[in-house]
Design brief:
two-stranded antiparallel sheet, two-stranded antiparallel ribbon, 3 helices
Length: 208
């Protein structure tokens, strides 16, 4: 209840009391003199003043209580807001750390991608060079009707063989040796060679 409303109620109550007292006084006026009426009015006024003071005091207590409650609510709201602000600040700091970490990871991945691309290009270049070397080391087989070594003619019983080193055609007797040679797959295996290529083998090439 507001102070203005309380005061209005007090005024209405005082008016009612005054009217009631006036009616009682009018009934008894014929038997009483002016002094008695004045005493009665004074007593009533004192009672009303006392009542008003009590009501004002109670109203002040109610207002003080309400003000205290509002202060507590305001303090609680301010404390909650401060806590929320601190929580938001912590969350923002955490998100910034996450973003920085993501930037760092992205930078590392970009660097790794560049290195991987360079390594892939280097590997591809190496493979192309090896393939070119293989193509140059693997000869084209040359067909013939007679052995390049002993000049015997090839037949059903005398089969034609090709030297994997020079590519020429030989009979079995002239190409019975073997040398470790690289094939198209890039692997080194023991392969048939002619006697001439076997005799010309040097270094780590062991003719068997």
């Amino acid at each position: 209840m507001s102070t203005a409303s309380t005061t209005n109620n007090w005024s209405a109550d005082a008016q009612k009391r005054m009217q009631s007292s006036q009616k009682k006084h009018n009934k008894k006026k014929s038997g009483k003199g002016p002094a008695a009426y004045e005493n009665h009015a004074l007593t009533f006024a004192e009672e009303m003043v006392k009542k008003l003071k009590e009501q004002l005091h109670q109203a002040k207590l109610d207002v003080d209580k309400r003000v205290e409650k509002v202060k507590e609510e305001h303090s609680a709201a301010a404390s909650k807001m401060q806590s929320e602000r601190e929580a938001d600040a912590q969350e923002i700091a955490r998100l910034k750390m996450v973003i920085d970490a993501l930037h760092e990871t992205n930078s590392q991945m970009e660097t790794a991608l560049v290195i991987q691309t360079e390594q892939t290009q280097t590997l591809q270049s190496t493979v192309e060079k090896l393939q070119a070397q293989i193509e140059t080391t693997i000869p084209v087989w040359k067909e013939s009707k007679e052995c390049t070594g002993c000049s015997c003619h090839f037949s059903f019983s005398t089969r034609q063989h090709h030297c994997r080193k020079c590519g020429l055609a030989f009979c079995d007797d002239c190409s019975s040796k073997r040398l470790p040679l690289m094939g198209r797959s890039g692997k080194v295996r023991s392969k048939r060679v002619c006697n001439s290529c076997c005799n010309n083998a040097t270094g780590s090439d062991i003719c068997g």
